[in-house]
Design brief:
Layout: E1 2-3, E2 7-10, E3 14-16, E4 21-25, E5 29-32, E6 38-41, E7 46-50, E8 54-57, E9 60-63, E10 70-72, E11 77-81, E12 84-87, E13 94-104, E14 111-114, E15 121-131, E16 133-136, E17 148-158, E18 166-169, E19 176-181, E20 186-189
Parallel strand pairs: 1-4, 2-5, 3-6, 4-7, 5-8, 6-9, 7-10, 8-11, 9-12, 10-13, 11-13, 12-14, 13-15, 14-16, 15-17, 16-18, 17-19, 17-20
């Protein structure tokens, strides 16, 4: 699927076994998982290549893709909501450069970014806002990686002070790896 403008809603669909990315989005607003669980799986390079616009992910499993589950660049926005999962990908679960990541779910159904070969989430610049997020068993192979790796001038805001909303467990290197920060970097993490 290729999208450059407009709006699209995909629900109860499986996007799988493509050469390249399952979804390539350079503009517009796309919503995955509305109206039924969607699967983006076993695509050769990555599940989603997001270089512009906004991608809203609901009841969707982005899994077992050859590289990253989602690669996001160019100031694009990835909104992950209840039911979103990024698991078992051959690279990072999510790799973000100078873009916006938002994770918002519930205590009963946290968003899972787990079992990926690379980092669960890799952030190089841009921002990450998260609540009810689980980063587990990422990067446990030969090359050890982390649940969350932060590089450069990123703005990180995770969790709430009143409730245990974050879980970083069993990752190969660190739960959170702050790996070289630059001017403008900030982090606020609760529970």
């Amino acid at each position: 699927i290729t999208m450059s403008s407009g709006t699209a809603t995909v629900g109860a669909v499986s996007v799988h076994d493509n050469t390249g990315a399952g979804l390539t989005q350079s503009g517009g607003t796309a919503t995955l998982g509305s109206g039924g669980t969607t699967t983006v799986a076993a695509n050769s390079t990555k599940g989603v290549a997001l270089s512009g616009g906004t991608l809203n992910v609901g009841a969707t499993n982005i899994t077992t893709n050859g590289g990253d589950g989602v690669t996001i660049t160019g100031g694009a926005t990835l909104n992950s909501n209840t039911g979103a999962a990024y698991t078992g990908n051959g690279g990072n679960g999510i790799s973000s450069t100078a873009s916006t990541l938002v994770f918002n779910s519930t205590a009963a159904a946290p968003i899972s970014v787990s079992g990926n070969t690379g980092d669960g989430i890799f952030v190089s610049g841009g921002s990450l806002t998260a609540n009810y997020l689980t980063l587990a068993t990422n990067g446990t192979g030969t090359t050890k990686k982390s649940g969350l790796e932060i590089v450069g001038a990123a703005a990180i805001n995770q969790g709430v002070a009143t409730e245990a909303a974050l879980s970083f467990t069993g990752n190969g290197l660190h739960g959170v790896n702050v790996n070289g920060r630059t001017s403008g970097w900030q982090m606020d993490m609760c529970k």
